[in-house]
């Protein structure tokens, strides 16, 4: 029997998942802070954030503070739903796997 997963490829990408996880925890973050939290390069953060924004999972706001550009990111309701759905499916897969193992231990 083949096991099928329906992970959303936009969410499942490691970089985008780190962005969503950080924003799920903090709701809103500026570029510099999000870069530090996710440990991504400027280019990777920009590219992945743009993809998440195109999917409607985050919003991006650009403004000026003291004549300097400041970019802020915020998770949307759709983004919250997407990361919860991803986590739920992942946990269900692990729980189903545990049922088949019985008393045996997982191997690292």
Outline the structure in words.
The protein is of the alpha+beta class. It has a single domain (12-94), classed as Orthogonal Bundle (Arc Repressor Mutant, subunit A), CATH 1.10.10. It is 58% helix and 18% strand. It has five helices and three strands. A three-stranded antiparallel sheet has the order 1-3-2. β2 and β3 form a beta hairpin. The radius of gyration is 17 Å and the shape is elongated. The two termini are 24 Å apart. The mean pLDDT is 88.
Count the domains. Answer: 1
Q: Architecture, CATH level 2?
A: Orthogonal Bundle
- Please compute the radius of gyration using only Cα atoms: 17 Å
- Give the termini distance in whole angstroms: 24 Å
The level of helicity is 55-70%
Shape: elongated
Q: What is the level 1 CATH name?
A: Mainly Alpha
CATH topology: Arc Repressor Mutant, subunit A
Low-confidence stretches: none
Strand coverage percent: 15-25%
Average residue pLDDT = 88
What name goes with the CATH superfamily?
Winged helix-like DNA-binding domain superfamily/Winged helix DNA-binding domain
Q: What would you call the structural class?
A: alpha+beta
Please give the order of strands in the largest beta sheet. 1-3-2
Q: What's the total count of β strands?
A: 3
Helix count? 5
Q: SSE string, helix = H, strand = E?
A: HHEHHEEH
Largest sheet: 3 strands, antiparallel
